[in-house]
Amino acid sequence: MAYECILTDVRGDGPLKTGVITLNRPKQMNALNDQLMDELGEALMAFDRDSSIGSIIVTGSEKAFAAGADISAMADYDHMEAFHRQHISRNWETIRQVRKPVIAAVAGFALGGGCEVAMMCDVVLAADNARFGQPEIKIGIVPGAGGTQRLPRAIGKSKAMELLLTGKFMTAEDAERAGLVSRVIPLANLMEEALALCAQINAQSQPSVMMIKELVNESFESGLSTGVRYERRLFHSLFGTQDQREGMGAFVQKRAPEFKHR
Ligand code: CO8
Protein backbone atom coordinates (compact mmCIF):
# COMPACT_ATOMS: atom_id res chain seq x y z
CA MET A 1 0.00 0.00 0.00
CA ALA A 2 1.23 3.53 -0.78
CA TYR A 3 1.50 5.67 2.34
CA GLU A 4 1.33 9.46 2.43
CA CYS A 5 2.03 10.28 6.07
CA ILE A 6 4.65 7.66 6.90
CA LEU A 7 7.67 6.03 5.26
CA THR A 8 8.55 2.36 5.66
CA ASP A 9 11.82 0.54 5.19
CA VAL A 10 13.37 -2.84 6.02
CA ARG A 11 16.89 -2.86 7.50
CA GLY A 12 19.43 -5.35 8.75
CA ASP A 13 21.44 -8.24 7.34
CA GLY A 14 20.65 -11.10 9.73
CA PRO A 15 18.09 -13.82 9.07
CA LEU A 16 15.49 -11.60 10.74
CA LYS A 17 15.23 -7.97 9.68
CA THR A 18 13.98 -4.78 11.31
CA GLY A 19 10.94 -2.91 10.02
CA VAL A 20 11.36 0.87 10.23
CA ILE A 21 8.37 3.22 10.22
CA THR A 22 9.09 6.94 9.96
CA LEU A 23 6.29 9.39 10.79
CA ASN A 24 6.41 11.93 7.99
CA ARG A 25 4.31 15.10 8.19
CA PRO A 26 7.26 17.46 8.53
CA LYS A 27 5.33 20.73 8.10
CA GLN A 28 3.02 19.83 11.00
CA MET A 29 5.78 18.46 13.28
CA ASN A 30 4.33 14.97 12.61
CA ALA A 31 1.00 15.93 14.22
CA LEU A 32 -1.03 12.72 14.38
CA ASN A 33 -4.11 12.97 12.22
CA ASP A 34 -6.50 10.18 11.33
CA GLN A 35 -4.75 9.23 8.10
CA LEU A 36 -1.35 9.00 9.79
CA MET A 37 -2.73 6.83 12.58
CA ASP A 38 -4.47 4.56 10.02
CA GLU A 39 -1.23 4.20 8.05
CA LEU A 40 0.84 3.62 11.19
CA GLY A 41 -1.56 0.86 12.25
CA GLU A 42 -1.48 -0.79 8.82
CA ALA A 43 2.32 -0.67 8.59
CA LEU A 44 2.71 -2.08 12.11
CA MET A 45 0.34 -4.95 11.42
CA ALA A 46 2.02 -5.69 8.05
CA PHE A 47 5.45 -5.94 9.72
CA ASP A 48 3.91 -8.02 12.52
CA ARG A 49 2.55 -10.50 9.94
CA ASP A 50 5.83 -10.63 7.98
CA SER A 51 7.85 -13.64 9.15
CA SER A 52 11.12 -12.08 7.96
CA ILE A 53 10.73 -9.21 10.47
CA GLY A 54 11.86 -9.64 14.09
CA SER A 55 11.28 -6.16 15.51
CA ILE A 56 10.02 -2.73 14.52
CA ILE A 57 11.30 0.82 14.98
CA VAL A 58 8.93 3.79 15.04
CA THR A 59 10.68 7.12 14.57
CA GLY A 60 10.05 10.67 13.39
CA SER A 61 12.26 13.52 12.23
CA GLU A 62 15.18 15.19 14.00
CA LYS A 63 12.80 17.99 15.10
CA ALA A 64 9.77 15.96 16.14
CA PHE A 65 8.86 12.38 16.89
CA ALA A 66 5.30 13.76 16.98
CA ALA A 67 4.00 17.03 18.46
CA GLY A 68 0.69 15.41 19.45
CA ALA A 69 -2.68 14.75 17.92
CA ASP A 70 -3.50 17.18 15.12
CA ILE A 71 -5.05 20.10 16.99
CA SER A 72 -6.38 21.79 13.85
CA ALA A 73 -8.33 18.62 12.95
CA MET A 74 -9.92 18.47 16.42
CA ALA A 75 -10.39 22.14 17.20
CA ASP A 76 -14.06 22.36 16.14
CA TYR A 77 -15.28 19.04 17.50
CA ASP A 78 -18.17 18.99 19.92
CA HIS A 79 -18.70 16.20 22.45
CA MET A 80 -20.82 14.04 20.13
CA GLU A 81 -18.37 14.31 17.26
CA ALA A 82 -15.48 13.24 19.45
CA PHE A 83 -17.47 10.39 21.02
CA HIS A 84 -19.90 9.14 18.39
CA ARG A 85 -17.87 9.37 15.19
CA GLN A 86 -14.98 7.67 16.98
CA HIS A 87 -12.90 9.89 14.76
CA ILE A 88 -10.04 10.33 17.17
CA SER A 89 -10.16 7.06 19.02
CA ARG A 90 -10.71 4.13 16.67
CA ASN A 91 -7.14 3.84 15.39
CA TRP A 92 -5.00 4.65 18.44
CA GLU A 93 -4.79 1.18 19.99
CA THR A 94 -3.53 -0.81 16.98
CA ILE A 95 0.05 -0.51 18.21
CA ARG A 96 -0.91 -2.52 21.30
CA GLN A 97 -1.93 -5.49 19.16
CA VAL A 98 1.58 -5.90 17.73
CA ARG A 99 3.28 -9.03 19.11
CA LYS A 100 6.84 -8.17 18.05
CA PRO A 101 8.89 -5.62 20.00
CA VAL A 102 8.34 -2.02 18.92
CA ILE A 103 11.16 0.41 19.65
CA ALA A 104 10.47 4.15 19.69
CA ALA A 105 13.48 6.14 18.49
CA VAL A 106 12.58 9.63 19.65
CA ALA A 107 14.28 12.84 18.53
CA GLY A 108 12.83 16.31 19.12
CA PHE A 109 9.31 16.77 20.46
CA ALA A 110 7.25 13.83 21.74
CA LEU A 111 4.22 15.69 23.08
CA GLY A 112 0.64 14.77 23.91
CA GLY A 113 -0.37 11.91 21.62
CA GLY A 114 3.28 11.72 20.47
CA CYS A 115 4.44 10.99 24.01
CA GLU A 116 1.55 8.53 24.36
CA VAL A 117 2.55 6.66 21.19
CA ALA A 118 6.15 6.48 22.47
CA MET A 119 4.90 5.10 25.79
CA MET A 120 2.87 2.42 23.94
CA CYS A 121 6.15 1.16 22.45
CA ASP A 122 8.21 -1.44 24.30
CA VAL A 123 11.51 0.44 24.55
CA VAL A 124 11.99 4.19 24.19
CA LEU A 125 15.41 5.40 23.01
CA ALA A 126 15.85 9.17 23.19
CA ALA A 127 18.16 11.42 21.18
CA ASP A 128 19.82 14.08 23.33
CA ASN A 129 17.48 16.73 21.84
CA ALA A 130 14.28 14.84 22.76
CA ARG A 131 11.57 16.63 24.77
CA PHE A 132 8.67 14.76 26.34
CA GLY A 133 5.45 16.20 27.69
CA GLN A 134 1.69 15.99 28.03
CA PRO A 135 0.71 19.63 27.34
CA GLU A 136 -3.01 18.90 26.84
CA ILE A 137 -3.82 20.93 29.95
CA LYS A 138 -2.66 24.02 28.10
CA ILE A 139 -5.31 23.58 25.41
CA GLY A 140 -8.19 22.79 27.71
CA ILE A 141 -8.29 19.01 27.46
CA VAL A 142 -6.70 15.97 29.13
CA PRO A 143 -4.57 13.25 27.53
CA GLY A 144 -6.77 10.81 25.62
CA ALA A 145 -4.51 7.93 24.61
CA GLY A 146 -3.23 6.63 27.94
CA GLY A 147 -1.09 9.56 29.12
CA THR A 148 -2.68 9.79 32.56
CA GLN A 149 -2.30 6.01 32.97
CA ARG A 150 1.07 5.13 31.45
CA LEU A 151 3.05 8.21 32.51
CA PRO A 152 2.60 7.60 36.29
CA ARG A 153 3.44 3.92 35.78
CA ALA A 154 6.59 4.93 33.87
CA ILE A 155 7.93 7.74 36.07
CA GLY A 156 5.94 7.61 39.32
CA LYS A 157 2.94 9.60 40.49
CA SER A 158 4.59 12.78 41.69
CA LYS A 159 6.70 13.50 38.62
CA ALA A 160 3.79 12.51 36.35
CA MET A 161 1.37 14.80 38.18
CA GLU A 162 3.79 17.69 37.84
CA LEU A 163 4.12 17.19 34.09
CA LEU A 164 0.41 16.53 33.53
CA LEU A 165 -0.77 19.44 35.67
CA THR A 166 1.61 22.04 34.23
CA GLY A 167 2.12 20.78 30.67
CA LYS A 168 5.84 21.42 30.95
CA PHE A 169 8.36 19.40 28.97
CA MET A 170 10.95 16.93 30.22
CA THR A 171 14.46 16.81 28.74
CA ALA A 172 15.95 13.55 27.48
CA GLU A 173 18.30 13.43 30.49
CA ASP A 174 15.42 13.90 32.95
CA ALA A 175 13.38 11.30 31.07
CA GLU A 176 16.21 8.81 31.40
CA ARG A 177 16.65 9.56 35.11
CA ALA A 178 12.91 9.08 35.62
CA GLY A 179 12.78 5.80 33.68
CA LEU A 180 10.64 7.02 30.80
CA VAL A 181 13.41 6.17 28.33
CA SER A 182 16.00 3.43 28.49
CA ARG A 183 18.93 5.44 27.09
CA VAL A 184 19.94 8.88 25.79
CA ILE A 185 21.92 8.78 22.56
CA PRO A 186 23.63 11.56 20.58
CA LEU A 187 21.17 12.63 17.87
CA ALA A 188 23.50 11.61 15.03
CA ASN A 189 23.69 8.02 16.34
CA LEU A 190 20.02 7.47 17.23
CA MET A 191 19.03 5.24 14.30
CA GLU A 192 22.31 3.32 14.32
CA GLU A 193 21.78 2.49 18.02
CA ALA A 194 18.12 1.63 17.51
CA LEU A 195 19.02 -0.73 14.65
CA ALA A 196 21.79 -2.31 16.75
CA LEU A 197 19.31 -2.93 19.58
CA CYS A 198 16.86 -4.50 17.12
CA ALA A 199 19.62 -6.71 15.67
CA GLN A 200 20.31 -8.00 19.19
CA ILE A 201 16.61 -8.71 19.73
CA ASN A 202 16.27 -10.33 16.28
CA ALA A 203 19.04 -12.81 17.17
CA GLN A 204 17.10 -14.20 20.15
CA SER A 205 14.52 -16.98 20.16
CA GLN A 206 11.43 -15.22 18.80
CA PRO A 207 8.81 -17.08 20.88
CA SER A 208 10.69 -15.96 24.02
CA VAL A 209 10.90 -12.40 22.68
CA MET A 210 7.17 -12.22 22.01
CA MET A 211 6.25 -13.86 25.30
CA ILE A 212 8.46 -11.47 27.30
CA LYS A 213 6.77 -8.55 25.58
CA GLU A 214 3.33 -9.99 26.33
CA LEU A 215 4.25 -10.68 29.95
CA VAL A 216 5.77 -7.28 30.72
CA ASN A 217 2.81 -5.51 29.16
CA GLU A 218 0.31 -7.78 30.92
CA SER A 219 1.64 -6.70 34.29
CA PHE A 220 2.40 -3.09 33.27
CA GLU A 221 -1.12 -2.59 31.99
CA SER A 222 -2.95 -4.55 34.71
CA GLY A 223 -2.41 -5.71 38.29
CA LEU A 224 0.83 -7.33 39.49
CA SER A 225 -0.73 -10.60 40.72
CA THR A 226 -2.44 -11.20 37.37
CA GLY A 227 0.87 -10.60 35.62
CA VAL A 228 2.83 -12.96 37.89
CA ARG A 229 0.24 -15.72 37.42
CA TYR A 230 0.30 -15.21 33.68
CA GLU A 231 4.10 -15.35 33.71
CA ARG A 232 4.04 -18.73 35.48
CA ARG A 233 1.72 -20.17 32.83
CA LEU A 234 3.83 -19.02 29.85
CA PHE A 235 7.04 -20.06 31.65
CA HIS A 236 5.67 -23.60 31.94
CA SER A 237 4.59 -23.60 28.30
CA LEU A 238 8.14 -22.91 27.04
CA PHE A 239 9.25 -26.32 28.28
CA GLY A 240 7.37 -27.70 25.27
CA THR A 241 9.68 -25.93 22.79
CA GLN A 242 12.86 -26.94 20.96
CA ASP A 243 14.43 -23.56 21.73
CA GLN A 244 14.23 -24.19 25.49
CA ARG A 245 15.93 -27.55 25.01
CA GLU A 246 18.57 -26.02 22.76
CA GLY A 247 19.12 -22.91 24.93
CA MET A 248 19.56 -24.80 28.18
CA GLY A 249 21.45 -27.66 26.49
CA ALA A 250 23.89 -25.20 24.94
CA PHE A 251 24.49 -23.54 28.31
CA VAL A 252 25.23 -26.88 29.95
CA GLN A 253 27.54 -27.83 27.06
CA LYS A 254 29.25 -24.39 27.19
CA ARG A 255 28.47 -23.45 23.57
CA ALA A 256 26.37 -20.78 21.81
CA PRO A 257 22.73 -21.80 21.23
CA GLU A 258 21.39 -22.38 17.72
CA PHE A 259 17.77 -21.42 18.12
CA LYS A 260 15.32 -22.85 15.59
CA HIS A 261 12.85 -19.98 15.86
CA ARG A 262 14.99 -16.95 15.19
N1 CO8 B 1 -1.32 19.78 15.80
C1 CO8 B 1 -1.36 20.48 14.62
N2 CO8 B 1 -0.33 21.23 14.18
C2 CO8 B 1 0.78 21.29 14.94
C3 CO8 B 1 0.88 20.62 16.16
C4 CO8 B 1 -0.23 19.82 16.58
N3 CO8 B 1 -0.22 19.10 17.69
N4 CO8 B 1 2.09 20.87 16.69
C5 CO8 B 1 2.73 21.69 15.82
N5 CO8 B 1 1.94 21.96 14.76
C6 CO8 B 1 2.23 22.79 13.62
C7 CO8 B 1 2.11 24.28 13.96
O1 CO8 B 1 0.77 24.70 13.91
C8 CO8 B 1 2.98 24.90 12.91
O2 CO8 B 1 2.25 24.94 11.70
P1 CO8 B 1 2.31 26.27 10.75
O3 CO8 B 1 3.76 26.37 10.33
O4 CO8 B 1 1.39 25.97 9.63
O5 CO8 B 1 1.91 27.43 11.61
C9 CO8 B 1 4.09 23.88 12.71
O6 CO8 B 1 3.59 22.66 13.23
C10 CO8 B 1 5.35 24.25 13.47
O7 CO8 B 1 4.99 24.49 14.82
P2 CO8 B 1 5.46 25.82 15.63
O8 CO8 B 1 5.57 26.97 14.71
O9 CO8 B 1 4.56 25.95 16.82
O10 CO8 B 1 6.94 25.37 16.06
P3 CO8 B 1 7.72 25.73 17.40
O11 CO8 B 1 9.09 25.18 17.21
O12 CO8 B 1 7.58 27.16 17.74
O13 CO8 B 1 6.97 24.88 18.56
C11 CO8 B 1 5.93 22.93 19.54
C12 CO8 B 1 6.95 23.49 18.51
C13 CO8 B 1 6.44 23.20 20.95
C14 CO8 B 1 5.85 21.45 19.29
C15 CO8 B 1 4.57 23.63 19.33
O14 CO8 B 1 4.19 23.52 17.96
C16 CO8 B 1 3.45 23.05 20.15
O15 CO8 B 1 3.33 23.38 21.33
N6 CO8 B 1 2.59 22.19 19.55
C17 CO8 B 1 1.43 21.66 20.18
C18 CO8 B 1 1.79 20.61 21.22
C19 CO8 B 1 0.54 20.07 21.88
O16 CO8 B 1 -0.23 20.77 22.48
N7 CO8 B 1 0.35 18.74 21.75
C20 CO8 B 1 -0.80 18.08 22.32
C21 CO8 B 1 -1.91 18.03 21.32
S1 CO8 B 1 -3.40 17.33 21.98
C22 CO8 B 1 -3.11 15.66 21.99
O17 CO8 B 1 -2.08 15.20 21.57
C23 CO8 B 1 -4.19 14.79 22.57
C24 CO8 B 1 -4.00 13.36 22.13
C25 CO8 B 1 -5.30 12.66 22.33
C26 CO8 B 1 -5.35 11.36 21.54
C27 CO8 B 1 -6.74 10.80 21.66
C28 CO8 B 1 -6.85 9.48 20.96
C29 CO8 B 1 -8.09 8.76 21.32
Automatic annotation (TrEMBL):
<dbReference type="InterPro" id="IPR018376">
    <property type="entry name" value="Enoyl-CoA_hyd/isom_CS"/>
</dbReference>
<dbReference type="InterPro" id="IPR014748">
    <property type="entry name" value="Enoyl-CoA_hydra_C"/>
</dbReference>
<dbReference type="GO" id="GO:0004300">
    <property type="term" value="F:enoyl-CoA hydratase activity"/>
</dbReference>
<dbReference type="Pfam" id="PF00378">
    <property type="entry name" value="ECH_1"/>
</dbReference>
<keyword id="KW-0456">Lyase</keyword>
<dbReference type="InterPro" id="IPR001753">
    <property type="entry name" value="Enoyl-CoA_hydra/iso"/>
</dbReference>
<dbReference type="InterPro" id="IPR029045">
    <property type="entry name" value="ClpP/crotonase-like_dom_sf"/>
</dbReference>
<protein>
    <submittedName>
        <fullName>Enoyl-CoA hydratase</fullName>
        <ecNumber>4.2.1.17</ecNumber>
    </submittedName>
</protein>
<comment type="similarity">
    <text>Belongs to the enoyl-CoA hydratase/isomerase family.</text>
</comment>
